[in-house]
Design a protein that fits this description.
- This protein is α/β, with parallel strands linked by helices and 520 residues long.
- The chain has 18 helices and 15 strands.
- The strands form four sheets. A five-stranded mixed barrel has the order 5-6-7-9-8. Strands 1, 2, 3 and 4 form a four-stranded mixed beta sheet that branches. A three-stranded mixed beta sheet has the order 10-11-12, sandwiched between helices.
- Strand 8 (179-187) and strand 9 form a beta hairpin.
- The radius of gyration is 49 Å and the shape is elongated.
């Protein structure tokens, strides 16, 4: 019995990769739980595996005290000496009283079985966590085992992993039994089901594939500084070389693209842009936006990490990419917000800014018509006053700060600005009405053109129908038995009428004879 139980414990230990002591502890806990349910007493029960007999022994432990207060867990010193004569018994010592286990029964055995299974599962989960928690970011091979509500369970050999729907590439379809390479992204300790979470969309998968395919990356000559993906569609990888003679991009591409093509095949046709890393953000964004050619880059807000990129008009769609994909990936890999504009857009923006500045100067110069000197208006322009609205919003303290303006002058300027603002508002309203009228006229012309086109189309259809109906009528006449000579008679009559008309035209004075000839 002892050897048989021991063999079973060692077999489970090998199958589950669990320490035998863990299984023995699980069995001890299971028998102890079943014993407590069976005896239903307040005794301090404990269990122990006997290596010699191969059985789980259960004991009721009592502590030696002078005065017994709880009979289930305490025994008096005199009582202990009577039970164990000749033995040295001291206060505080614990004495074990064996309890029978052969009468636990079926229910107790079922309880013990559940406890053992639970303890073994917990031990397995602890082993999986200990093995894979330090391997996050690694790429492992697995076999698709089954599908669960859109998620796939992947067998890694020693454990099962979960491939969630959000971690699956849209360009891929998986079947049971397929071999897949996945990246370990997370290991959960207290989760139900598979603890290891794997991904086919994580950038770490792309990085590890490059490390396996490119020897220069594996030995550290070329380093990958960043990688971003939109799985199944496009990815960007930033690389840098530690040696001047080694081209990082060429090393990753390989001879005739052999290295990168193998990675593309593994990712089911995902396009990969390999760009060179640059510590300067402006230089890096030029590389990151490839294959588009960038005209110039300017940093708008360094603190908020915003930059503006200007490209040629023909390069704008290429720089933005399909549904904004190229610029989105470039922004992620650079770590800056990128605003892309074409040369035409930038030109219009500059013209609008110049027009706005000219409008501000014109507004301030208009104060001269209301008694403000040219010298004073120039001072307002030099002080950075942004037009009449800004001037009217300024307080007396802000106005008097300007050289040559006192309280009275400030009041005079404000009155002149109020009058001039009324004129400008009227001019703006008139201009808005004019633009609205032009827009309405243009819209009316377009609607009229749209109405005319269907009428022309209808007339063309009518003419086509008439042409088609002519031969049909002739065929209809033939079918009705009309003589073909009718047509020839009409032609002869027509020739006679034409002849009469010609004679009448030749001799207009003799109209009667011409008419008689025609009748004959």
């Amino acid at each position: 019995m002892a050897s048989q139980l021991r063999q079973q414990i060692e077999q489970i230990s090998r199958e589950k990769n669990i320490n035998p002591d863990v299984i023995i502890a699980a069995i001890e806990d299971a028998i102890l739980t079943a014993s407590k349910k069976y005896f239903k007493e307040e005794e301090d029960l404990r269990s122990r595996f006997n290596e010699e007999s191969g059985q789980i022994e259960v004991f009721a432990v009592k502590q030696v005290v002078e005065v017994v207060e709880i009979e289930e867990t305490q025994i008096s010193l005199d009582g202990a000496k009577k039970l164990f004569p000749g033995a040295e018994v001291e206060l505080g010592q614990e004495i074990e009283f064996p309890k029978p286990t052969d009468m636990l029964g079926r229910i107790a055995a079922q309880t013990a079985k559940q406890v053992i299974f639970q303890k073994v599962r917990e031990a397995e989960r602890d082993n999986v966590y200990a093995e894979y928690s330090g391997r996050v970011g690694e790429v492992v091979n697995g076999i698709v085992k089954r599908q669960e509500m859109g998620d796939f369970v992947v067998d890694l050999g020693r454990a099962e992993a979960l491939l969630p729907r959000k971690e699956q590439s849209r360009a891929e379809a998986y079947q049971t039994g397929d071999r897949v390479r996945v990246a370990i992204v997370r290991v959960a300790k207290a989760a139900k089901g598979p603890q290891v979470i794997v991904s086919r969309t994580d950038p770490s998968l792309l990085i590890k594939l490059f490390e396996m395919e490119v020897p220069e990356i594996y030995d550290g000559t070329v380093q990958i500084r960043g990688a971003v993906r939109e799985a199944g569609e496009r990815a960007k990888v930033a690389v840098i070389s530690r040696e001047r003679d080694v081209d990082p991009v060429g090393a990753c591409v390989g001879m005739k693209g052999t290295r990168v093509q193998s990675i593309i095949r593994e990712l089911r046709g995902e396009k990969i842009d390999i760009v060179e890393w640059n510590d300067d953000p402006t230089g890096f964004v030029i590389n990151a936006l490839s294959p588009a050619k960038v005209s110039r880059v300017s940093i708008v807000d360094e603190e908020q990490r915003i930059m503006e990129v200007v490209v040629e008009d023909k390069q704008l769609s290429l720089a933005i990419g399909k549904k904004g994909q190229n610029v989105r990936l470039a922004a992620k890999i650079v770590g800056w917000r990128i605003d892309i504009k074409s040369e035409e857009e930038k030109r219009r923006e500059v013209e609008a800014e110049m027009a706005r500045m000219a409008r501000m100067v014109d507004e301030l110069k208009s104060l001269e018509r209301f008694g403000i000197s040219e010298k004073m208006t120039q001072k307002l322009v030099d002080a950075g006053v942004a037009g009449l609205p800004h001037l009217l919003a300024m307080t007396d303290e802000e106005l008097t700060v300007i050289d040559g303006i006192g309280p009275k002058t400030a009041q005079k300027i404000r009155e002149a600005a109020t009058q001039s603002k009324v004129e400008w508002d009227e001019m703006d309203a008139a201009e808005a009405e004019r633009l609205a009228a032009e827009q309405a006229a243009t819209l009316a012309e377009e609607e009229l053109a749209e109405d005319v086109e269907p009428e022309e189309a209808s007339a063309d259809e009518t003419a086509s129908a008439a042409v088609v109906e002519g031969p049909a009528a002739t065929e209809e006449g033939e079918d009705a038995g009309e003589p073909l000579g009718g047509g020839e008679a009409l032609d002869e009559a027509g020739d006679e009428v034409k002849g009469a008309a010609a004679e009448e035209a030749a001799d207009p004075s003799d109209g009667g004879e011409g008419q008689a000839d025609g009748e004959r």
